[in-house]
User: What shape does this take?
Amino acid sequence: LEEVQEDLQLMMSNPEKFLADSSSAIGSTKNYQSLNIRTDILYDREEETSTLLEVFSQISSPSCTNRSRMVLISGYSGTGKSSLVRKLEHEFIRRGARFVSGKFDEMQQIQPLSAIMNALNEYCNLLAHDTVHIDRNRAAVEEALGSEGQVLAALIPNLSRLLAETIGGPPLAEVSGREAQHRLAFLIRLLLRSTCSSSNPIVLFLDDLQWADSSSLELMRSLVTDVALDNMLFVGCYRDNEVEPGHSLFECLESIRRFGITPITSICTSNLNMASVNALISDALSTLPRATGSLSEAVFQKTGGNALFVTEFLTSLRDEGLLQYSLSRRKWEWEMEHIRSRTIAQNAVDLMTAKLLRLAPEVHQALRVASAFGAHCLEEVLQIYDTDPCHLSSTVAALDIAVAEGLMAKVDGPAYRFSHDQIQSAAYKLILESERESFHLHVGKSLWQQSSEDEIDEYLFVIVDQLHRGACRISDHEEEIRLAELSLTAGRKAAEMSAFLPASAYLQAGIGLISDGDWEWHRELCFDLYNWCAEMEYILGKFDEVKAHLEEVIKKGRTLREKLRAYYTFVQSSGSHSNTGDAFATALMVLDNLGESIPSEVTQLEVQQELLATQALLRTKTEGELLQLKTMSDIDKREAMRFLNLLLLYVYAERKEYFPIMACRMLQLSLSYGVCKESAVAFGAYGVSICGLLGDTSNAYRFGKIALSLLERFQAKECLPRVFVAFYGFIADWTDPLQSSLPCLEQAINTGLSTGNNEFALVNASYYQG
Assistant: This one.
């Protein structure tokens, strides 16, 4: 009796689900044979939903301090991690949040920072379309980013809609390597700091963190540990069965925990229990739960309660006729014995692969092509692929059929996205493993040959990735050389985006395509590949690989000019690797070859001689002449200035007796051959030297002022923190009130951070704090 009452209550509360319209004819337009899989319902996720909303309320509460939070959702594929977040998206937005998302892709790990940049591009689009607050948003972004906003706009196109046009403005600071990476992270933090609030917080959702590249993880760590960034909820999903101890994701998360600033909430999604599977099947069949119990039990035993596996298995039963709607009895019926005895695939991927094989040949082929790109692919890329004369059918048209079948979705871009990662995996399995390299090579060649120059630039990473996956199938060496040149272009572009690991991968692949004989016939290409690769590995801290690549360049180089770039990287790498002895010896050898001999051992007499020689040159110049010195044009002397400028960093820390020697030699070169941006550092360092060694505060102040003038002349923003700390930290206090230096030191701190020079930003901060 209780069960009957329960059924009656369900029918009364959901008549549209459980009560058929008796007036409907058998030929009604209603499609009774369609399964009503409820994507809008989360089964057995009430606790997880409540946890997410509770954390969100913390970042959106005006009374709460330190309002950035991190939520990590783990679980096996198909357990509904992404669905949990997507289900709450509209609720977040209703409460004022700007919800943005990005998804990492196993097939697209080599495409740098794609997931985070896509999310931030979406965020800037929301800001630009916020008509109520558009003026406030623009003003906040302009004030926060200044001229450096153009750096970010190159990576986040929609940001340009919030920035004023800059025509003839100051040039951007020339930074590279780690400084560029630091600058990128700092500018993104400034963007979010200036636009997040308790009334409009940001929810940043990144899916499939197990496939995130190291550059993205480092940027993620930088964001969630920013003590000045409030009102951000970071939500990340990952498959815990694909992340082992020592994985880069775990190392990143451990670093965040050690920092101790951002609270981390962990949620684990498991498979559905028997009751939830029955609720899902009851909804799908519009049949009372008591009537679907036996079917649900069989499905649960076959699938283990994995939500994706449950829905795919249910669909396969319908497709095979073991589950069908009886028009005469007006209800779903199933063959229980056949279902229980049916042998099924071990997982959802194998089950879906069999399903895909039953599709029309043109859809089957289109899904193979789409799967080669990963979880999603831009429609324009597919259209370029379709222009190849050897492709007789339209990939785009066939994928529209896949969209209608629910296998894919059409999303903004416009792009096609597989409805689930497992569907993409199933489609990729349609390509025989023995044929995959050739398949990728064919796709890459089609895109390369059919693309215009602008399209190659826009989709460079996509094209190169496909070609690299099939590069071992290339038999023509000239074609390998062309791909090596394209790999160099991709590596340089990735480096400009501060994505150094992908850049290294592109360059390593390019090196793998050249042979020993190419050092004769394609000399410039070989030098560029090896030098760029060594520079990326230096940034990544792979010092053994750096040494190996540089040794090859030095061995193959015939002239000093061909070896200079490698020597410079070697000095940088050795110096940062606490091997200043090798760095110093190499730099002195190079300087000697450039005509600037520096003694290997410094005595007090030699320091005095350098100071006297410099003072003699200075006496030949008036104040006006010093300010009007010509620009240095001698290539060898410019290189000498670069090496001396680099050494100046190391000698101040470990070999202070060399500091005045280096400062004097840089100043002598500037007075004799003309000035360059490093000359600003030279005048500042010389001022520090005579102030400390000779007590000549008057001339130190005078030359410090010339250093400031040279900064302005060359717009050398990247040199500003070093020059400012020399003048406002060491020199000016002997002449000007201490308080007058504080605004300039603060400017140096901000400039150092915005140009990625964190080291000298901290040095200036130490003087600012006294």
User: Anything to note?
Assistant: The first strand starts at residue 69 and ends at 74. The two ends are 83 Å apart (CA to CA). The first helix runs from residue 2 to 13.
